[in-house]
Amino acid sequence: MRILGVHHGHDAGVALVDDGDVVAAANEERFSRKKLHRGVPERSLRWVLREHGEDIDAIAVAGLYRRKKLADALRELADRLEAPLIHVEHHEAHAASAYYTSGFDRCLTITVDAAGDGLSATVWVCEKGDMRRVATVSYRDSLGDFYANVTQMLGYQPMKDEGKTMCLAAYGRPDDDAMEWLENEYIRVEKGTVVNESGLISGEAVRFLRSSPLAELPREDLAATAQRHLERCLLDLFAHHIEAWNEKNVAYAGGVAANVVANMKLRERLNIDLFVHPNMGDGGLALGAALRVWALHELAEGRTPSPPRMEHVYLGPSYDEDEVERILDDEGVEYEHVGDDPETVVEELLEGNVVAVFKGAMEYGPRALGHRSILADPRDEGIVDRLNEMLGRDPFQPFAPTVLMEDFPRYAENACESRFMTMAFRATEHFEEEAPAVVHVDGTTRPQTLVDEDPFYRRIVERFRDETGLGAVLNTSFNVHGEPIVMSPEDALRSFRKGVADVLWVEGFIVRGPSSSTT
């Protein structure tokens, strides 16, 4: 059964599930070049149907709220494909995205975000391919809204820049008095649910915070206080339900699940096996909706849906060598064909160059994981300032590594597989000394652990290890700051010309910029 998933709200996107296998998934922002694109994902719909065919059995639409406002485009699509539209509630889609990609047979699934279909958090008991909701939290009692409001207080954009708040927190200290005020006057967790004592949300809550003790704190301490309070609330929420259901396997999704430091604390303090869906925010709703509709069909037929654990997210558009060469010629670019030998990339890294890599199918989700990545030598602490200048990033935001999984236990405490950069880890002293460019000021690192899901990328890191003794490279997303990650070769060239890297490796072709030390 082929299910087309569609989400047409914040961070719109599409996904295609074929008998439980995730065939394709992408977000509209990569096609429209509008960050967190809102609206019908017309371009990504055209792509998925062109590449994978129009033989669709059902269209799974994430979210109930917009049912009456469903765009004509989706109705027309359903008529054209002769496929029914099936709506899946927002948090049910979040939960399905996590459970059906976790590989767990039985687990708790927890969703936490700002709001969706009237809720801000849910808890599900999942087993034998089905999900049963056992707890809900209203949108008026929202941990995601709390963190977004602090993000706005800091002068950042709420529902977009919460990652900046988390990164800034590492430079500050939580304030005990402000923590007590948050607990008593604003928001806390009691008996497994969230309680918003103030009764205020969004703009009203921001005004409330601006007249609170938090407003007197230095920016770094404000961020640290909010981060610590969020962690405490999540720990209380998770601990209550883990104990109630005696379950140590936990799948997790929703926008708050993007907080990798909180995820680390949950895993450490509660001693759980935590799987975070790689596209944890609303960008993952299309896939969650499709998986849920497929699973419900299987259950109705008397079968137990058991999709495998997601091992890679290379699910978006790809371009072959001939297409890339034609584009390079059309753009009048000087290039050299070097093929799939990783030696060229490693040589450039060892020369001190920043290398943009464009390879294969685009990653699904917010992280660049080797197919639309910018790579650098993590041993060079000075590369951080250079990259910040090249990419237009805030200086307090850390860079992340890609690490060979077999080496990871030497680099992090309590190491475990983390393929999708969804978890922070405490770096060992050895890693802090060997790879200072990818360890944050608080001693944490957010790795992509590499097993065998991408042979070319793995060969790059292995070859770098052969030369340096370090089984890791710095990996950040291939984009200009504030823009979506590149999707096409044209996007890659456009960003490269803006100076985001010294060298571009694109499907076996090398393009060198004026700043390359090997020009």
Folded structure, characterized:
The protein has 519 residues and is α/β, with parallel strands linked by helices. It folds into three domains: 2-88 and 285-300, Nucleotidyltransferase, domain 5 (2-Layer Sandwich); 93-277, 2-Layer Sandwich (Nucleotidyltransferase, domain 5); 321-512, DHBP synthase (Alpha-Beta Complex), CATH 3.90.870.20. It is built from 18 helices and 22 strands. It has helices spanning 28-32, 42-52, 72-81, 90-102, 143-153, 162-169, 176-186, 202-210, 219-245, 260-270, 285-300, 321-330, 343-350, 383-391, 408-411, 429-434, 455-468, 489-497, and strands spanning 2-7, 13-18, 21-27, 58-62, 85-88, 106-116, 119-127, 130-138, 187-190, 193-196, 249-253, 273-276, 336-337, 355-358, 372-376, 400-404, 425-426, 444-445, 448-450, 472-477, 503-506, 509-512. The strands form five sheets. Strands 13-22-21-14-15-20-16-19 form an eight-stranded mixed β-sheet, sandwiched between helices. Strands 3-2-1-4-5 form a five-stranded mixed β-sheet, sandwiched between helices. The protein has a five-stranded mixed β-sheet with strand order 8-7-6-11-12, sandwiched between helices. The longest helix is centred in the middle third of the chain and has 27 residues, at 219-245. The N and C termini lie far apart (52 Å). The model has no long low-confidence stretch (mean pLDDT 96).
